[in-house]
Design a protein that fits this description.
Elements (H helix, E strand, L loop, with lengths): L1 H37 L2 H18 L4 H11 L3 H26 L5 H23 L2 H32 L1
Length: about 160
């Protein structure tokens, strides 16, 4: 019984850390969305130019710096609006889910599993185009949070059922 309690306590702590990180990620997305709404595409291109200038002086063929410059010049008002709305909605959904999970709202657990699964599927889809390692890391983290949420949900349901008997 003690071993079972310790493992549940351990899982719960990891769950809390995981969803707290998801909440912070959501807040950063909201901040990014707000910033994106207030920055013009030409300002973004100028900032990218400033941040990559040193790297390009050292190596004019720097792959990442050249990619960032090219991408910033292709950034339009419509892509800026889409990016801002995506970040704001994605961030807000994460923050609301995390708030519900931290408050142990039982109905939020299955909702969060579905939402984080949809996010993960979309990230895998985006990976097929971008081949971004950060998307792989984010997706692995999301899958871990889904597993921990599922585990926490079943543990919480058992606890509620046993307290009602």
């Amino acid at each position: 019984m003690v071993k079972k309690y310790l493992s549940e306590k351990y899982f719960h702590k990891i769950f809390e850390v995981g969803i707290t990180l998801k909440g912070l990620d959501g807040l950063l997305e909201i901040i990014g969305g707000i910033l994106l709404l207030n920055v013009k595409p030409d300002q973004i291109a100028s900032l990218v130019q400033i941040f990559t200038q040193h790297e390009l002086i050292e190596d004019p063929r720097d792959l990442i710096a050249n990619y960032l410059i090219q991408a910033s010049h292709q950034f339009s008002i419509s892509s800026e609006l889409f990016g801002a709305l995506y970040l704001l909605s994605h961030g807000l959904i994460k923050v609301l889910i995390v708030f519900g999970l931290l408050k142990n709202k039982l109905w939020v657990y299955p909702v969060s599993i579905v939402v984080f699964s949809v996010f993960s599927i979309y990230q895998i889809y985006r990976f097929t185009y971008s081949h971004s390692i950060s998307l792989v890391i984010l997706t692995v983290f999301d899958i871990l949070v889904i597993f921990l949420t599922w585990h926490e949900y079943h543990h919480l349901k058992k606890k509620i059922l046993s307290s009602q008997q």
